[in-house]
Amino acid sequence: MGANMGKSGSLLDALPTGQGTLHVVMLGLDSAGKTTALYRLKFDQYLNTVPTIGFNCEKVKGTLGRAKGVGFLVWDVGGQEKLRPLWKSYTRCTDGIIFVLDSVDMERMEEAKMELVRTAKSPDNAGVPILVLANKQDLPLARQPRELEKLLGLHELGHSHVWYVQPACAITGEGLQEGLEALYEMILKRRKLAKQCKKKGR
């Protein structure tokens, strides 16, 4: 039941029709490790990648906790500055956002924060769970999740946003499945709340 792009190749053709697959978008600055993380999740091995111009799309499966066996259709969108205006069209109607962060690159932390906040505050993304994948944790100067929460201003996003910072290393795969599990839990929580609000008939 893979997502076939179809002859017209539009985004909508590729969206899963069943309830079984969750639609997730992977964003982040260029060189943060998005594509490496995607293919590590897909094939469970390290693949040498080139900068993404456009997007990669793969179906991956969760292997831990309640996410075990759950299908995620992951859109990995290029992070170069000229490509970032396109992010909006990928995040529309998505179940979750994975923001991949280079935990070592302090010079670009402010830029990463700006893009993350812009994405989170877009009206289309209100309430969409955000998993921050704190990548490159294998490197000596990698910042820890608590420090990254402060640097990215995650606490300032307000109550309408659920987020989680997962330390990870895309090259070894460490932390990636734990991240998917955390994202899945946030998605379930959001759906439960949405159902409750409907029942109250606001």
From TrEMBL:
PROSITE patterns registered for this protein in UniProt: ARF, RAB
UniProt: GTP binding residues: G28, L29, D30, S31, A32, G33, K34, T35, G79, N135, K136, Q137, D138
Domain of life the protein comes from: Eukaryota
GO-annotated biological processes: establishment of localization in cell; vesicle-mediated transport
Keywords in alphabetical order: GTP-binding, Lipoprotein, Magnesium, Metal-binding, Myristate, Nucleotide-binding
InterPro entries noted in UniProt: P-loop_NTPase, Small_GTP-bd, Small_GTPase_ARF, Small_GTPase_ARF/SAR
Pfam families: Arf
UniProt key word Calcium: no
Annotated binding of Mg(2+), by residue: T35, T52
GO molecular-function terms, A-Z: GTP binding
The keyword Transmembrane helix is annotated on this UniProt entry: no
Assigned protein family: Belongs to the small GTPase superfamily. Arf family.
Role summary: May play a role in apoptosis. May act as a tumor suppressor.
PANTHER family recorded: ADP RIBOSYLATION FACTOR-RELATED
NCBIfam families noted in UniProt: small_GTP
Protein name: ADP-ribosylation factor-like protein 11
Organism expressing this protein natively: Ranatra chinensis
Classification lineage: Eukaryota, Metazoa, Ecdysozoa, Arthropoda, Hexapoda
